[in-house]
Amino acid sequence: MAVLVHHLGVYWLNACRIVYVTEEHGPPARFAFAYGTLYEHAECGEERFMVEYDPATGEVWYDVLAFSRPNHFLTRIGYPWARRLQKKFAAESKDAMMKAVSQPGNRF
User: Fold this and answer.
1) Which of 26, 37, 47, 73 is the most exposed place for a label (fewest CB within 10 A)?
2) Distance between CA atoms of 58 and 77, rounded to whole angstroms?
3) pTM here?
């Protein structure tokens, strides 16, 4: 997989690979996947995305867990900026999940 970053008029393609997938039918039902960065990625690390659904309460939980360190000259010198972009991505990911689960007819 690849993550395409576009910021300040610059595009950066970051290659990753899925390192694991979890699917549990519960209850609660749980699905997760994680990807790890490849050699040329701007960062070095992993990121996990997990969705959990409790049919008894109808609650949906979404969790993003990430750890990384700079792996490129530009991410080293722009460390605070890179962290802000990561936090922005996490917030946008949460907003997208909220929108997806709030639409009528969507099921886990």
Assistant:
1) 73
2) 45
3) 0.80
